[in-house]
Specification:
This protein has 224 residues and is an alpha+beta fold. It folds into 2 domains: 75 residues, 3-Layer(aba) Sandwich (Glutaredoxin), CATH 3.40.30; 131 residues, Glutathione S-transferase Yfyf (Class Pi), Chain A, domain 2 (Up-down Bundle), CATH 1.20.1050.10. 55% of the residues lie in helices and 7% in strands. It is built from 9 helices and 4 strands. Strands 2-1-3-4 form a 4-stranded mixed sheet. α4 runs parallel beside α6. The longest helix has 31 residues. It is globular, with a radius of gyration of 17 Å.
């Protein structure tokens, strides 16, 4: 199986870290997002969305990180994607929550908006309005994550066993490191992120993004 990825891609890291933790062998093919390689005709034949990650398994291709994680977990019979119907449905629910709610506002509306020039809005009023709106919405999502999805007793999202929701969700939260978010008002989130960062393959998976984060030091960003 081949994974087209980039270390600066939040969802690429979710897949890479899960695969490494599970001992799933993948051939990694770098798609250089910073040179626009994702828009090349060659790559668009693989993924017409011009995004990463993409998984190719023989003649079968998947282009969405959530689906890729589930596919790999099924192939590996990973306990991170439980077989029991209700437990699996809960993992799916949490993954959808991160994708449809949290990442939309925090990832795209707060972090990427400030870090990546191509996410900047066309004028300052629009840009600052989007940022203010997204910061407010993100604070609400973080409160739900802190109090309801994790809570004071759970080590992971929804319980004390790591699941695909943790692999997907932690990357969407931890990108706050790029702009200096410390999540002090959300102690359960802080504790969960610390648990995930203690995984044996966290360092290897984050070498690239840590280098990018270092290049942003000294810049001022609006945090939560």
């Amino acid at each position: 199986m081949k994974l087209y990825y980039h270390p600066a891609s939040t969802t690429s890291r979710s897949v890479q870290m899960f695969a490494l933790d599970q001992g799933i062998a993948l051939d990694y093919e770098l798609v250089d997002l910073f040179t626009g390689a994702q828009h090349s005709p060659e790559y668009k034949r693989v993924n017409p969305n011009s995004m990463v990650p993409t998984l190719v398994d023989g003649d079968f291709t998947l282009t969405e990180s959530s689906a890729i994680l589930k596919y790999l977990a099924e192939k590996a019979s990973s306990p991170a994607y439980p077989k029991e119907l209700k437990a699996r449905a809960r993992v799916n629910e949490h993954m959808d929550w991160f994708n449809a709610n949290f990442n939309k506002d925090f990832g795209y509306g707060v972090v990427y908006l400030q870090v990546f020039p191509h996410h900047k809005r066309p004028n300052e009023d629009c840009h600052s309005g989007t940022l203010d709106w997204s910061r407010d919405k993100s604070a609400g999502w973080l409160k739900i994550l802190d109090e309801n999805l994790i809570g004071p007793k759970n080590a992971y999202v929804g319980g004390n066993s790591i699941t695909l929701a943790d692999y997907l969700g932690v990357e969407m939260v931890a990108i706050g490191d790029l702009i200096g978010c410390e999540f002090a008002p959300y102690p359960n989130v802080q504790r969960w992120v610390k648990n995930m960062k203690s995984l044996k393959n966290w360092g290897k998976t984050h070498e690239g993004i840590n280098g990018f984060a270092a290049s942003l030091k000294g810049k001022r960003f609006a945090t939560l």
